[in-house]
Model the fold of this input.
Amino acid sequence: MGDFLERARRIADEVFFPAANAVDASGEVPPGHFDLLAEEGFYGLAAPAEVGGPGLELPEIVAVLETLAGGCLSTTFTWMQHHGVVLSLASTPNTDLRDQHLAAALKGETRFGVAFAGAIPPVPRLRAERVDGGFRLHGEAPFVSGWGAVDLLQVSARDGDQVINGLVEPAAGRTLLVEGLDLVAAQATSTVRLEFDGYELPSSQVVSEITHEQMLAGQVVGSRLNGCVACGLTGRIIRLLGDTEQAAKLRAELDDVRRRLDAGMADLELLYPARAAASELAHRAAGVLVTATGSTSVLRANHPQRLARESVFTLIAASRPQTKAALLDLLVR
Done:
């Protein structure tokens, strides 16, 4: 653990954070950011030891994610998507697919994104029609990050109560339309909306078929890890505030939020409000930093304005209806 966390701190402080404003201004993550994560072994971070990963425990992974998110939100948020696919490949019954991609995924030689939001709602936004030889996909994946930066996407679509998870090439075509999205923060995540119009997904590219209930249960770990983005942002803000009373109070609140997020792993009804608390704290901490810094906070060359906009991003990124409701209660009190 110590080695990964130490390297994460070095990358965040010496590479990611100094470049974060430039990344934000350009709307593009430098390929060197992702290459560095690959060189340092971070693409295999979440993989279990039995498939060639480091076999880290969840608290160890959380610490690394927070650290990197505090360096550059756009880089970390895009790279984070990769790990869900690594875990899918590690457990897939499609051994040919695992043999083809897992080793390269662990090294970051093949980089993955995900598009699962269309399969989550009770009425799915992305459907899978079962046909000879595989499936046809119809509908939309509303927010897909990493377009142009990933080699393959794991797309989730619904066939009744079944969720079909499959790998697709991230390339526009007659049956896959791509709409770029203009974000007020984290534009460098290269987030797009995808429209599938009879897109053919062959059975050979299907990673898994699970029930909708199983998919939602699997989202618990993902929700905990997504909380790292808000916590990492707050942690960086606390460091920028220095040795102040405000920083001390925010640090105590951040420690409490982390405890609540961990407790939510055993009780989903606790996880939703904990996720909300993490985002609300990041949003409020950014306001503290802007106020404490003064008028120079609104200059684009300075960090506070970017962190304030990124805190807004954490309010809605990877959210769920229950998290949204809890967050609204916190914001209007």
